[in-house]
Amino acid sequence: MSVMIIKLFSTLPVRHKEFQRNIKKEYSKMIFVLQSYCIISTGVRITCTNQTGQGKRTTVLCTSGSNSMRDNIGAVFGPKQLQSLIPFQQISPGESIKEDYGLGEVDVPKDLFVIDGFVSQADHGVGRSATDRQFFFINKRPCDPVKASKLVNEVYHMYNRHQYPFVALNITVASDCVDVNVTPDKRQILLQEEKLLLAILKSSLMAMFETGVNKISLNHITPTSAGSEDREIGSVSEALPDDEPPKTSINLARLKEAFSNHQVPGIGSKQSSHKAACSGSSQKKMFSFVSCSKKMTDIMRPPLKSSPSFAAVSSIKKLTVCLAKYKSTFDNDAEDSEAANQISAEDDPEILHENNSESGLHPSIYETDVKAETISEPVDEKFWSYKPLVPETKSEQHQDRMSSPEAKRARYEAEPLAQNCLVDSKSKNASTQLDSPVSIQKNTVLLQFSLQELSKRMQRLQAQKKENHEQELKYRRFRAKINPGENQSAEDELKKEISKDMFKDMEIIGQFNLGFIITKLKSDLFIIDQHATDEKYNFEMLQKNTVLKGQRLIAPQSLHLPAISETVLMENLEIFRKNGFDFLVDEDAQVMERVKLVSLPTSKNWTFGPSDIEELIFMLSDSPGIMCRPSRVRQMFASRACRKSVIVGTALNTSEMKKLVLHMGEIEQPWNCPHGRPTMRHLANLDMVS
Fold first, then answer.
1. Which of 231-235, 509-513, 638-642 has the lowest mean pLDDT?
2. DSSP element (H, E) containing 591
3. Domain MutL C-terminal dimerisation: where (predicted)?
């Protein structure tokens, strides 16, 4: 059966564009999935080829159709990988491991899981530098059991802490005990009795690794029979005595439970009591305001009787008293808020208060530059103002409120009946007091208007508001202490608050203890390790610019790389050459024979080999085309950078310190040196110092 895939996502423009942009990463993921099926599919021959455009068709993966998983692993990853593999041997978990996972005798079903496969040995140099070759299967279906994968790596690190194992494990379980319909790709699974599976994996792996970790293989020359000069080379295994007591295991589950139950008392109660007090005072103020507003509403209602009475006078008195009460309540509220602000400032010294004026604006903004000329002309204008004897409707009151005095005068003059009523009311009831006509003198003021002047004033007003906004409450941006336990939080704060452009704005205060530089940025003080920062700058320059020289081998060396690794290597030959590796490439040769090593990098006492090539291939598969270095090359550069950097105890002048600070703005990661020592920490904020 042949399957051909062409023009993938061509009918979906957006997805096709995204696929083309990340095509190398997607290609690597596809190869990983194919490798999984090639390993587990016994008795089936699988061949995968790739053809780009009109180019040559190249073989990516190929298996021989063997009935053994071991043969499939050798066909995919080469015979060199088989040398370090040991078969998985399943054993029942011990009592201590059962206790770690909370398993009892009754809870453990028999023969629920059957595990078979291969794991690499725990010897140093046998594992891999990454988790790129770890394959898990449930009933021969590729999957990603996160907890099982994490456990395998943790147990392996107990015996080889610097590397990761090769893993190919198939877990056979009843189909009704597993659910694969968790995610669309069916890679995530749900298992019944997952704790039992983890306990079996842990106990089996520990037993497998402990049998080989305490043995030392030696080339020992043993003599033959007496008088004979023939010698043979054998292998001697030295193991620890069997009666040695086993290692005690710590119950991690109990420790985690103890730490998770730890709480800090007293904090929640204080916060709740403070909130209750604040809410109580605010409710009292709200109730007083609502009651006062109700009284004002009742007073402002229109009277039902036509003639004025003492009730109206008493209502006016009540309104005056209510307004006085409301004014006192408002003043008390202002005093309470002022006191609350002072208390919060004393309780939280991290907030900086700047006592600005209420308006916060400069008085010069309101000074007028245009001279106004006043003309006083007496004007005799008479208009009637009277109180109607008939109660008005709400619509008439609304019209009176919304109209101007001139409109009122015109309306009143157009109704002579109102004047007659007024005269009659005077004659009938002399005791009733009504408004009489008055004469008002108006002063007319002519103002000169300038749009340009108004624009300038608005600009000054906006600038003043912006300045006041910048001088509002300020909070501490740096909270982490200079403590090894808070290195990560301190580094996160520096990444968030300090950009590369800010280093050139830092002011050099001086040198402390012949090892540290004190700098100032606005109101913040920083301390910089002169040796660590110079070391990081030199390290990144070596990483970026150094081209390692290679030494040619006497004869080309076959690497037996899998097809995907050969493809990655051939696409990034220039990066390998900068690292000192050179290869002889024959694209017409068979898979695993297309690339041969002809040159290795050397540098004094540092030597490199095929393991560095595999590490570099893995790094380039994740980030193709990006310049990277193997870990041992980085160690060599870190050692060189440390030796050529400014040492502690060297006195520096201002220009030399400024140079080191400017260098921090030119590198990618200026926050710690290659060995992990921090380069820069926040000392104090001068606004916080009393």
1. 231-235
2. none
3. 508-652
